[in-house]
Amino acid sequence: MKKTILALQPLLPDEMNVLENEYDVIRLWESHDPEELLQRHTYDVQAIISTYNSSGVSERLMMALPNLEIIAQFGVGYDNIDLKAAHERGIVLTNTPDILTGDVADAALYLLLNVARRVVEADMFVRVGRWHSGAMPLSSSVAGKTVGIVGFGRIGMAIAKRVEAFDMNIIYHSRSKKEDVAYSYYNDLEAMATDSDFLVLACSGGEETKDLITYKILEALGSKGYLVNIARGSVVCEEDLLIALENRVIAGAGLDVFANEPNVPEEMFKMDNVVLSPHIASATLETRSKMGQLVLDNIKAHFSGQPLLTPVCFAG
Ligand code: 8YV
């Protein structure tokens, strides 16, 4: 008998086809009455495919599915999943690390370059015909400047590698100093922000990093400093960021993630010192397809009693 998978969001068509051939799939995102759909399948669901931009996997959802065994997250971050509840229920969790690292690091670089060199503004300058009335205001060069990376895991390190090619200096802040890394480590985030021209957020989301970037940190970054966020919107106190951008407490920001996606503070739409993108750092065909394949492989491994490819280990 086919296993039943609850999919909160679709995979790409190729991976979706494989999924639907091998399993009974409940397509929750298409339902007009998700509660009723879940009630109908309470005892069927053995796996969930979740993503960050879905409704998430709460304790309530897990409670409603007594036969749930595995949550396969389509993404590296899993701050939309109640880990404690999953752990207590003995539900296993997998994610999709590594395969998206390059694309996400690239996104940090394009946001950094974009906001410093005013690329989006320049594009608009040409399109609306302002070039005829004179030259565009000057931008800021990046070479010789210092990038402070917050979170120095796989993505943080991949950002550092790219930043080096632009002749920039690298410093970093993370939970602990990395033994095998030559860049200067800052235990104190405010001190690092003071020494940074670009503060790039590459840490995990969740309680531990919630509102890490406050007005005080932005003040320390200073009026010539830029914030780049490809981590999670929750890492930044968005109200503080708005005030800092409006008052030019910082020079600008390149943002792929927001506190309450897909809602972006409308005040930002009018700002010429921000570059906005809709949480697309991993959104390339190649990477999203590999992420989908890894989700399928993890589910298959689980149901065939093989070791999971990329399990998330519960701390504590
Ligand atoms: C999302 C992400 O998975 O990997 C992560 O943690 O935030 C993204 O890659 C993607 O946006 C789909 O929700």
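^ 2-keto-D-gluconic acid complex. The chain has two domains: 4-97+285-303, 101-276. The mean pLDDT is 97.
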